[in-house]
Design a protein that fits this description.
Structural class: mainly beta
Largest sheet: 4 strands, antiparallel
Number of domains: 2
Oligomer: single chain
CATH class of the largest domain: Mainly Beta
CATH topology of the largest domain: Immunoglobulin-like
Strand content: 25-35%
Strand order of the largest sheet: 1-2-7-6
Order of helices and strands: HHEEEEEEE
CATH architecture of the largest domain: Sandwich
Mean pLDDT: 82
Helix content: under 10%
Radius of gyration: 28 Å
Shape: elongated
Number of strands: 7
Distance between the termini: 89 Å
């Protein structure tokens, strides 16, 4: 059973249709496993995606961040002469990895060192969205005025 019915949830909620699309896309992903990657939490609001991309040059890889999606694609321009290889164990095939990013996650940089592509991400919540403390004011109850009248 690969499908879930979220309709009871959406009867009483508004604006969570994105959650439904996210769950459906997560269930429909066909993952080839290439290239392998790690997702690390490097700080309170910072993350790193490390991808093993041996044989790829920086010019062979494109990283695209759009809305809440991150797409990493690689295509080698020159594989050399295939007839020279007796055995080819280092995969040099084209790839495309897609990541769904949470709200306010921004890509801050990327570097390729020793065949590992590191993509740095950080959560930047706007000031208007951050929790704020509301000051509670105390108003002293006004003492009832006593009026005296001559009878």
């Amino acid at each position: 059973m690969n499908t879930f019915d979220f309709s009871p949830l959406f009867r009483s909620t508004i604006g969570f249709d994105r959650l439904s699309r996210l769950m459906e896309s997560a269930l429909n992903v066909e993952d080839s496993g290439y290239p392998p990657y790690n997702i690390e939490k490097t700080g309170a609001d910072s993350y790193r995606i490390a991808m093993a991309v041996a044989g790829f040059a920086p010019d062979d890889i494109t990283i695209t961040a759009q809305e809440n999606a991150l797409v990493v694609a690689g295509k080698q321009k020159g594989n050399g002469d295939p007839s020279r290889y007796l055995y080819r164990g280092i995969a040099g095939r084209s790839f495309e990895r897609r990541f769904q990013l949470a709200d306010f996650i921004k890509v801050t940089g990327a570097d390729l060192t020793n065949g590992v592509l590191n993509i740095e991400l950080v959560r930047e919540v706007p000031e208007a969205m951050k929790p704020r403390t509301i000051k509670i004011e105390s108003r002293a109850a006004a003492a009832p005025a006593i009026e005296t009248r001559a009878a």
